[in-house]
Design brief:
- By secondary structure, the chain is an alpha+beta fold.
- The protein has two domains: 1-39, no CATH class; 41-88.
- Helix content is 38%, strand content 34%.
- The protein is built from three helices and four strands.
- The chain has helices spanning 2-14, 16-19, 23-38; strands spanning 42-50, 59-68, 71-76, 79-83.
- Strand 2 (59-68) and strand 3 form a beta hairpin.
- The longest helix is centred in the middle third of the chain and has 16 residues, at 23-38.
Length: 88
């Protein structure tokens, strides 16, 4: 389920700009948000591909995210990002 959730979340995040003008996209984003808020905690593995200028080799980075309530911890290729609701 977490893979499906993260795939949906990523798609929703990349279309966020379009969601401002698209009522269907807003409905999708609202539904994903409800499902995430209903979970007690969430852990997911993900990968992100970064593309640059023409001819540049795309970079793929892998990471994990752990969420519980408003707190989260992300580990992305050794970079750690966390939020304990007071400090990010």
């Amino acid at each position: 389920m977490t893979k499906i959730f993260f795939a949906l979340l990523f798609v929703c995040m990349t279309t966020l700009v379009h969601a401002q003008n698209d009522p269907k996209a807003k409905v999708i984003l609202d539904n994903v948000s409800k499902k995430v808020k209903a979970l007690k905690s969430l852990k997911a593995n993900f990968s992100i591909t970064i593309t640059g200028a023409k001819g540049a080799k795309p970079q793929t980075k892998k990471g994990t995210v752990n969420m519980k309530g408003d707190k989260y911890f992300i580990n992305l290729s050794g970079q750690e990002i966390y939020c304990d609701t007071k400090t990010i």
